[in-house]
Design brief:
Largest sheet: 4 strands, parallel
Order of helices and strands: EEEEEEEEEEE
Number of domains: 1
Helix content: under 10%
Strand order of the largest sheet: 1-4-7-10
Structural class: mainly beta
Low-confidence stretches: 89-103
Radius of gyration: 13 Å
Shape: globular
Mean pLDDT: 77
Strand content: 35-45%
Number of helices: 0
Distance between the termini: 23 Å
Number of strands: 11
């Protein structure tokens, strides 16, 4: 996804069973970087979703995002797996929602 001024993908309000996989966040079609202003993926008040995956085609690549993945507001049982990010992107799990899985 490119040309995004805020968050790229948001799963919220009870979204469940979704997979965000095989994406390139924060790059132009030619592979050059394009800044994402906040997060590549936000999961808010939602459960049982997966971001990335253990096989190469399921992995997400995140460049130039303030946060790679945010889990917040009562989200539970979500998984973040094998997602590659540059040094500016981090996963942010807001307390007290630490039971979500990040690997």
């Amino acid at each position: 996804m490119f040309g995004v001024s805020t968050d790229c993908v948001t799963l919220s309000n009870g979204a469940t069973g979704n997979a965000v996989q095989g994406n390139f966040f924060g790059t132009r079609p030619d592979g050059s970087p394009l800044e994402v202003k906040n997060a590549a993926v936000v999961i808010s008040n939602s459960s049982n979703n997966i971001v990335g995956g253990m096989v190469p085609g399921a992995r997400n690549t995140i460049y130039w995002a303030r946060y790679g993945v945010i889990l917040e507001n009562g989200s539970s049982n979500n998984q973040v797996q094998a997602t590659t990010s540059d040094c500016r992107s981090t996963a942010r799990i807001l307390p007290p929602y630490l039971p979500s899985k990040a690997s």
